Amino acid sequence: MGRHLKGRARRELAAQLVREYQAGATVRALAGEMGRSYTLARALLLEAGVRMRPRGAPKREAR
Predict the structure, then answer these.
(1) How far is it, in rounded angstroms, from Cα 17 to Cα 28?
(2) Which end of the chain is more exposed for a tag (fewer CB within 10 A), N or C?
(3) Cβ-based burial of 56 (10 A; exposed 0-12, middle 13-18, buried ≥19)
(4) Structure confidence by residue, pLDDT tens digits, 9-59
(5) To 10 degrees, the CA torsion angle through 50, 22, 58, 42?
(6) Rounded to an integer, what distance in angstroms lies between the CA atom of residue 40 and that of residue 58?
(7) Cα–Cα distance measured from residue 34 to residue 43, given in angstroms and rounded to the nearest whole number
(8) pLDDT value at residue 1
(9) pTM of this prediction?
(10) Which of helix, strand or coil describes residue 52?
């Protein structure tokens, strides 16, 4: 861990975060699962253009 994410690894992690966040996972849960900080997980989602849910918003149901 402890290394900076760049290039392909950063894009791949961001894509995974986007998929799971859009499926209803919280930023905090995703960060924990990936072994990354909340700040990095949120930053990657924002870089990917994801519209963040309001705090305490209901999670979307998986279809």
Answers:
(1) 11
(2) C
(3) exposed
(4) 999 999 999 999 999 999 999 999 999 999 999 999 999 999 999 987 666
(5) -50
(6) 22
(7) 14
(8) 47
(9) 0.81
(10) coil
